[in-house]
Amino acid sequence: MHSTLLPVWAAACLLVANCLMTPAVAEERVYELRTYTTNEGKLDNLNARFRDHTTRLFKKHGIENHAYWVPVGEGEENTLVYIISHADNDAAKASWNGFREDAEWQKVAAESEKDGKILSKRPDAVYMEATDFSPQNFESAEEPRLFELRTYTTAEGRLPALLKRFREGELKLFEKQGMTNIAYFTPQDKPNTLIYVVAHKDADAMKKSWEGFRNDQEWQQLWESSTKDGKIVIKVDRQILRPVDYSPLK
């Protein structure tokens, strides 16, 4: 009797052991690009609220702070742009619910708007996933840098070709010209779109890097090869950003 039961028992133990040893498949970390537009003269109030309270409360509720910027040029007097992240979509929802219901946050929000509402409209939020070639390091530098937030919209069905080009050569060519690759994302709800961030030492370095990149023969060959089957990028949006004093990424 024991000889017939032993293999069943052993098989059950083996099954349990395998379940315990097999790692769970983790969902993709979710990044959030948020843009806040303030009423006139209220950007300092918004930055003070983030500096003194909001970033700490984000962390309390499981939200990771990555980068906080204000634009250079258009929007510099009334815009805050930042990137945060969550373990997954469910975690994002739970974190935001917890943050909004936090008694400390409610008190901070009320006190910060005693002299008038800070935001002129609802924040713009884009949920994103990192590409397989994204550095994802958000590594800061000793001196504050200038950042570019670039959004590429591709022709229908051409995003894979764009990702292939970045994966197989474009990032290396950026580095060759002195740019620092920060992060690359695809939005969850915006098809045919790539959003990425690169950093430069300053405005002069940025200008020099892009000129060198455009004139690089290796880049020209890569572009010609990638567009043999048709045009890839149909629209480019660009923001030049500088980090605020409380940004983890500088």
Descriptive overview:
This protein has helices spanning 2-21, 43-60, 89-101, 103-112, 159-176, 203-215, 217-226, and strands spanning 30-37, 64-71, 79-86, 124-130, 146-154, 180-187, 193-200, 233-243. The protein is an alpha+beta fold and 250 residues long. The chain folds into two domains: 30-127, Alpha-Beta Plaits (2-Layer Sandwich); 131-243, Alpha-Beta Plaits (2-Layer Sandwich), CATH 3.30.70. The chain has an eight-stranded antiparallel barrel with strand order 1-3-2-8-5-7-6-4, surrounded by four helices. A hairpin with a 5-residue loop joins strand 6 (180-187) and strand 7. Residues 1-26 form the signal peptide.
Low-confidence segments: 1-6, 8-26
Quaternary status of these chains? Answer: single chain
What is the element string, with H for helices and E for strands? HEHEEHHEEHEEHHE
CATH architecture of the largest domain: 2-Layer Sandwich
Keywords: Signal
InterPro entries: Dimeric_a/b-barrel (IPR011008), NIPSNAP (IPR012577), NipSnap_domain (IPR051557)
Family: Belongs to the NipSnap family.
Organism: Bremerella cremea
Topology:
Blueprint: H1 2-21, E1 30-37, H2 43-60, E2 64-71, E3 79-86, H3 89-101, H4 103-112, E4 124-130, E5 146-154, H5 159-176, E6 180-187, E7 193-200, H6 203-215, H7 217-226, E8 233-243
Helix pairs in contact: 2-4, 5-7
Quick overview of this protein structure:
The protein has 250 residues and is an alpha+beta fold.
Descriptors for this entry?
250 residues, alpha+beta, Alpha-Beta Plaits, 7 helices, 8 strands, globular
